[in-house]
Every structure is written in C-alpha cells, then in structure tokens.
Design goal:
- Helix 1 packs antiparallel against helix 2 and helix 3 runs antiparallel to helix 4.
- The chain is rod-shaped and about 245 Å long.
- With 742 residues, the protein is α+β, with helices and mostly antiparallel strands.
- 26% of the residues are buried.
- The protein has a 7-stranded antiparallel β-sheet with strand order 3-2-1-7-5-4-6, sandwiched between helices. The chain has a 5-stranded antiparallel β-sheet with strand order 9-8-12-11-10, sandwiched between helices. A 5-stranded antiparallel β-sheet has the order 14-13-17-16-15.
- The C terminus is likely disordered.
- Bound molecules: adenosine-5'-diphosphate.
- Adenosine-5'-diphosphate (ADP) binds next to helix 14 and helix 16.
Length: 742
C-alpha cells in the first residue's frame, strides 16, 4: 500500500478516537502502520507513568511468549530510548535488545510525542542525539518538530518499505497525542475504580467502629457519620415517637456541646464529656468526645471530626473504684486511730511489750522492748551490746516459736535476759497470749515482760535469811545448852554461897553476945574506975582510962553495925509494922542527937509539913535511918546548921537531912554507899565512924520499899533525901516476915 492521504489519516484518527480502550487503540494503530509500511513485525512501547521504563503495550508478528521487552528509560545506548527522547525516527540494523526486541533485525523506530505537562520527561537536544547516533552507528532521521511535545511512546517496525517511512512518521507523530489521551483516560478510570474500592473499604472500617464518628461543618450540621453515630443521631422512616424524641434530644445535646467547644476556642483542649440517650434502650450514655478540626484539605474549612468514646461502663467502674478508695481510706483512718491508741498504750506501759506475727517475727514493740531487742542502723551500739541483743532475741524467739506450735491460748514462763547497756542480768517473766481471727487461726502473739530482778533478789535474800536463821537457831540451841550447864553450875554455886553467907551471918549473930559481953564489961569497969568508985585516979590515969573507954565504945559501935548488917543480909532483921507518926519519931531522934548538936554549937531545926500522914511501917528502922543520917550530918559539920524537912510525896513522904558541913566531892558520891567506905581517910579519921552507916541505911530503906539519894557541894554541905512509901509493900512484907525472927 502506498500513499496515505489526508482522508485516510482522518479516518484513522476518528477510528482511533472511537476505540473502546487504550490497548484496542494501540493494537489498531500498530496494525494500520504495519499494513502501511509492509513491516512483518511491529511493537508499540509506552513510557510508563513512573517514567522509568518503556514497556510493550501492543505487538504484531512477534512471539508474545517471550515477554520482558521492557527497556530502561535511562539506557541511552538503546535506539528506542534515543528515538523517544530526541522525538526523532531512528533506523538501523542488528539487535535491539533481549526478549521481544530480539525479533527485530532491520528496524525503524518512530517516536510518538504527547503534549507537555508538569513533570513530563524532557526532550533531548538535537546535537546530543546526533552524537549518540554517531557513536551507535545508527541513522537519526529529522525530527517532526512540534512545540511543547514531550516523549510518550515509540513504534518499532521491522524492514518497512522505504516509500512508506514518511507517511508512518507522520501518522505516529499525529496519533501520539490521541493515544496518550486514551492512555491517561484508561489510567484515570483505573484510579477511579481503585478509589471507589478504597472508599468502600474505609467506609466499612469507619462503620465497623464501635465509637460514633461524626464530621460537622461550620454550622455544626452533620456532614458525615458512621453507622454507630447514625444510631444515636439519625432518624429512620419507621422510628417510634419515643425514639424520635431521643434522637432530637441527642442532636440538641451534641450541637450544643460542639458550640460550647467552639466557644471555648480550642478543639485541642482534650477530651470532654457528653451525655446522650440510647434511643433504643432509653439508658443514659456517657461519651468522651475527641474533636479534631479537619481543615480545607479534607472538607469545608471549618469541618470538625468528632469521635465519641462510650465511657458509660468505664465511668461506672471509675465511680465504683472511687467509692472503694473512699472506703479503704476510711478504714485506713480507723486503723490509724486504733494504731495510735495502741502505740499510746505501748509507750506508756513500763514493761517491755512485743507483738510477733504467725512466724515469730517481731512486728511491733514499745521503747522498753526496743532497748532489749532492737539493733538500729545508727544507734551506736557496741559489739558486746549487739551480741547481748542477739542473745536476748534468740531466747525470746525460741520461747515464742514453741508457744506458737502449742494449741494453748496463753503461756507464762521465766527467761534470763541481759540489759544490753549495762550487761547486768535481767530475769523476766514472759506472759504471752495469742490473737486469733474469726476462723480462730492465730495471727499474732502479744507478749509482756515483767522484770523479776527484785523478786529474784528477794528470793535470794529469803534463802540467805532462812539459812542464817537455821544457823542462828543451831547456835542458840548450842548456847542454850551451854547456858543451861552454866546455869546449873551457877545455881549450885549460888546455893553454896547462900549457904556460906547464912553460915557467916548465923555465926556473927550468935557471936554478938560473946563479943558484946566482954566489951560491955570493959566499958563498965572503965566507967567505975573513972567515977572513982574503985579509988582515986590521978589525971594521967584518968586520961588513959578515958581513951580506953572511947576505944571500947567505938569497938562496940563497930560490932553493932557489923551485926546489924549481917542480920539484914541473913534476912534475920524482923519487921514490926505499925502506924508511925513522923513527928513522934523525929522528936525521939532529936532528943538523942541533941547533946552532940549542943556540944558542937550547931543550929538545929526540924520542919514537918502539917498535912503529912503517918506511915504504916517499921518504927525502929525508920528511927535508925534518921539517926544514921542526922549523926553523919552533925559529925561532918563543924559550924552552921543541921535541919530536917518532912514533906509529902506521891505515894509517901520525903525527908531531907540538910547540913552546912564539909560536903562530898562529886567523884565520891557513888562510893559513900559501899560497905566500910569512908571517902576521905584523913578527914574521916578526924570524925570517927565505921563506914557502914550509909550502907545499912540504904539496905534498910530497900526493905521498907523506900530509897535514898544524895546531893552535895564539896565544902558547902550535903542533902540526903529519903523517900518512904505510905505502907511497906506486900512482897517485902511477906518476904521479911516470912523469914522469921531469931
Ligand atoms: P561513918 O561511920 O564513917 O560515918 P558512913 O557510912 O555513915 O560511915 O559514911 C561514910 C562516909 O560518907 C563518911 O566517912 C563520910 O566521909 C561521908 N559522909 C556521910 N555523911 C556525910 C555528911 N553529912 N557530910 C559529909 N560527909 C559525909
């Protein structure tokens, strides 16, 4: 076929325009070109939209089994690429490449341009194309220059007839834009379909969301929503009145919520809560609304996407949780109060208190217990103190462990601990009790430690005392035995002494007659001589006789005194009790003493108180007592006065014998009462006497139930005071009268 006139070209173009799709158009064009040029093989390659490869889209007379006819758009050595980029036909021989291209031997490549668009591949400058063609030894034909054309596709023809080349060039240049449009259309259609699919998928996704999703416009009207949102906000034909009301309410609530959100000025302010009604169930629903402005890219400029998260259950759970927390807090406060009270008790009890758990671990203790059982981080305990605390802990824990294994409710036991501070032993009594829960399971053990130091010390003292006591008893038994023996001996000795004394007194008493008779004879005969009855005696003889008589009289007095004393001691002085008027006795004694008083030119006075009663006593003995005291007073007084005063005294009378004589030294006041005692030998000799008078006086007074005392100032005088009871007491009476008279 030669000559392809304008009519044919117009027909071809309209036929192409009517082609159902791009592949059909491409095949049709290829067929027309092959026929025109007489080519046995032909292939149309299109530049992919990615602009990376030339890919075959229609073939003719080629083995389609051998695919892979693509050529890289950057492979400038390929005649196809050179033709396409330079928009110039290229002719040559030899291999065009592998795959489909291997079928061509003597070929013509025709470029198919398309109108330019943004991002389209640029056409290669002519000089560059010429350079490449020369290097490749291929023929570069003149280009069909069209303004704004860019590469689109190439047609490869095998051995076209020379006369057809111009027509073929013309046709390819003309049909390029049409085919490119068809290709774009096909691509757009493909895109459209996939977009619809994508939209369907997205819709499905959004509808299957459990949360209502809504897009609203500037007037808060709902533009789009998913299915869950429709259930809450969109009505249906067959809605009941109740449901319709609920929907209205929901729309109202939602719109007002959105208005408020807009007024608050920020959709980004985070989730906020929205109360809606379930139109089907009528329940209250609580949503957390997340709003997000969509902006112009996705929809109207003020469009807002709202996602409503159903938090009804969540809120209910949160409320419940809050209530639980409140309850726990309340319980905590109660427990803390109890704990504080317990602490108060623990801290104020002086005894150590410990609380242990079911596994015998100490979980609570007071300060006193801490001192014994706790090693703090920084309480600066020495190594010895720490060892003591460990030791205490071991003892206590083993006690508690044993108790924990028993079924008993309480246990009491002794334990020897030590004070960590002083190291002193600390005996304690532990009283432990189990604390049980409602199921009667032991959950804790409370132990109180009582300090037994004092008790143990008391026990020790008690033991020591007991021992001492028994030792003492033993000693007393021994001593008593000794004493009994000594007593027996003494008794025997005293009996012996008594017997000897009695013998002595009996001897003396019986001797009185024998002694007195010769002395009285001496005195009598001396008196006769002195009186001159036996003849005259001269002065010297008279003097000697006087001395002899005085000596005899002294001897007689001495013997009388000794005998009196002996009688008293031998119990042989009989008592003659009677009423004794004191003035009688005193006047008798005064008569006897008067000659001595006169001789010494002393003043003498007796003063008896008028109310003085008479005594029931032994008259002779009272006389002898007064006589002894008065004769001493006169004897030891050289000038001045001797007096007697009688006064009443409780239960008796008092008689004072007072003198202004020589007096007695204080150191001698005790000695004057002894037998034969004369305190100042030198002076007493001057006054005479036997030294027995006071001794006899005292013994007599003892017999009468009375007593005698002395007051004296040496050189000034003395006062002897006698006390006599109103009556001689009975024991004395019975003793003395019972003794019998000789
Ligand atoms: P005597 O027979 O020596 O008087 P007493 O027993 O009557 O023996 O007295 C003992 C001593 O007590 C006397 O020797 C005298 O030293 C002293 N004495 C007794 N009465 C008096 C007195 N009134 N004044 C001073 N000395 C006295």
């Amino acid at each position: 076929m030669t000559g392809f006139g304008d009519r044919e070209i117009a027909g071809l173009l309209s036929a192409l325009a009517e082609a159902p799709d791009f592949p059909a158009a491409a095949s049709f064009l290829l067929a027309e070109l092959s026929e025109l040029s007489g080519a046995s093989k032909a292939c149309l390659f299109r530049l992919e939209s990615s602009l990376e490869n030339l890919t075959p889209v229609a073939t003719l007379g080629l083995d389609t089994e051998r695919h892979n006819g693509s050529v890289s758009a950057t492979d400038l050595s390929s005649p196809l690429i050179l033709s396409m980029l330079s928009l110039s036909p290229v002719r040559g021989h030899g291999s065009l490449g592998p795959g489909l291209l291997s079928g061509f031997d003597s070929w013509l490549v025709l470029p198919m341009p398309q109108p330019g668009f943004r991002g389209a591949p640029e056409a290669m400058p002519r000089f560059r194309a010429v350079e490449l063609a020369l290097a490749r030894r291929i023929t570069l034909l003149p280009a069909d220059v069209r303004v704004g054309a860019v590469p689109f596709a190439v047609v490869v023809l095998e051995q076209p007839s020379d006369g057809s080349i111009d027509s073929a060039r013309h046709i390819s240049a003309l049909t390029g834009p049409i085919l490119s449009k068809l290709s774009a259309l096909a691509e757009a259609t493909g895109h459209g379909t996939s977009l619809v699919e994508q939209r369907d998928r997205l819709e499905l996704m959004v509808d299957s969301l459990p949360d209502p999703v809504v897009i609203t416009d500037a007037s808060n009207a709902i533009v789009a929503h998913n299915e869950r949102a429709a259930r809450l906000l969109r009505g249906r034909e067959d809605d009941s009145i109740g449901r319709r009301r609920a929907l209205e309410l929901n729309n109202l609530l939602f719109t007002s919520f959105l208005s408020k959100a807009v007024m608050a000025g920020a959709h980004q302010a985070g989730p906020r809560e929205l109360n809606l009604v379930d139109p089907d169930e009528g329940n209250d629903l609580l949503f957390e609304v997340l709003t997000h402005p969509l902006g112009e890219r996705v929809g109207p400029e003020d469009a807002v996407l709202s996602v409503l998260r159903d938090v009804t259950d969540l809120r209910r759970a949160a409320n419940e949780l809050e209530r639980q927390i409140q309850r726990v807090r309340q319980a905590e406060v109660t427990v803390r109060g109890e704990r504080d009270r317990l602490d108060l008790v623990l801290e104020n009890v002086a005894d150590p208190i410990l609380v242990t758990d079911a596994r015998s671990n100490i979980i609570l203790m007071n300060e006193q217990a801490e001192h014994l059982f706790q090693i703090g981080e920084d309480d600066g305990r020495s190594r010895r103190e720490i060892a003591t605390v460990r030791n205490n802990d071991t003892k206590f824990t083993s006690f508690i462990s044993e108790f924990a294994m028993l079924d008993d409710d309480s246990r009491r036991g002794r334990m020897s601990l030590a004070d960590p501070h002083s190291g002193v032993e600390l005996p304690v009594e532990v009283v432990s009790g189990k604390v049980r829960n409602e199921r009667r399971e032991p959950i804790a053990i409370v132990s109180v430690l009582h300090d037994l130091t004092k008790q143990v010390e008391n026990e020790r003292l008690y033991d020591a005392l007991k021992r001492l006591n028994s030792e003492l008893e033993q000693r007393i038994r021994e001593a008593t035995a000794d004493l009994a023996e000594q007593n027996a001996r003494l008794q025997w000795q005293s009996l012996e002494v008594e017997r000897a004394t009695k013998l002595k007194s009996e001897f003396l008493a019986s001797m009185s007659h024998e002694l007195r008779t010769p002395i009285n004879a001496l005195i009598g005969y001396t008196a006769l001589l002195l009186d001159g009855v036996l003849g005259d005696v001269n002065n010297r003889q008279h003097d000697a006789l006087t001395r002899g008589r005085a000596a005899a009289e002294h001897l007689l007095a001495l013997i009388n005194d000794i005998l009196d004393l002996a009688k008293i001691e031998a119990g042989k002085m009989p008592m003659h009790l009677e009423d004794v008027p004191l003035d009688d006795v005193l006047s008798e004694v005064s008569q006897q003493i008067e000659p001595m008083v006169r001789k010494k030119q002393l003043e003498y006075a007796v003063d008896i108180a008028p109310d003085c009663p008479s005594l029931y006593t032994d008259r002779t003995k009272v006389k002898q007592i007064l006589l002894n005291l008065l004769s001493n007073a006169v004897k030891f007084t050289t000038r001045g006065r001797v007096s007697v005063e009688v006064r009443c005294a409780p239960g008796g009378i008092r008689m004072d014998v007072i003198d202004t004589g020589i007096g007695i030294r204080a150191s001698d006041l005790q000695a004057i009462w002894d037998d034969f005692r004369q305190v100042d030998q030198s002076r007493t000799r001057e006054f005479g006497g036997t030294g027995l008078g006071l001794s006899i006086t005292r013994k007599l007074l003892e017999r009468l139930g009375g007593s005698v005392t002395v007051q004296s100032t040496y050189g000034e005088g003395s006062k002897f005071s006698v006390y006599l009871p109103l009556a001689v007491p009975d024991p004395t009476l019975s003793e003395l009268t019972g003794a019998g008279a000789p």
